[in-house]
């Protein structure tokens, strides 16, 4: 190997994989929900955070919306 490399004429380029990076977020989830995904993680071998991400991604891709009706008093 060379002792010295000349990078002065090297042209930089944008990382093409930045669009695939994940964005860290903080969420507060019920303990039962986390326990459910952790148990599913043990069965599948996929980390529970990944399972939650896959579930949410599936909801977003299929435009699923939560149907809630508030009980009137």
Descriptive keywords:
38% helix; 73 residues; mainly alpha
Describe the secondary structure blueprint for this structure.
Layout: H1 31-44, H2 48-61
Helix pairs in contact: 1-2
Describe the protein in words.
Helices cover 38% and strands 0% of the residues. The chain is mainly alpha-helical and 73 residues long. It has a domain at 29-60. It is elongated. The N and C termini lie far apart (78 Å).
Helix proportion of residues, in percent? 25-40%
What structural class do helix, strand and pairing data support? mainly alpha
Separate helix tally: 2
Please provide the ordered H/E string of secondary-structure elements: HH
Compact description:
This protein is an all-alpha fold. The protein has helices at residues 31-44, 48-61.
């Amino acid at each position: 190997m060379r002792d010295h490399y000349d990078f002065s004429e090297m042209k930089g380029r944008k990382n093409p994989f930045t669009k695939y990076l994940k964005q860290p977020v903080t969420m507060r989830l019920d303990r039962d929900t986390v326990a459910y995904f952790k148990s599913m993680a043990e069965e599948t071998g996929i980390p529970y955070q990944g399972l939650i991400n896959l579930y949410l991604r599936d909801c977003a891709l299929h435009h699923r919306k939560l149907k809630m009706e508030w009980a009137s008093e």
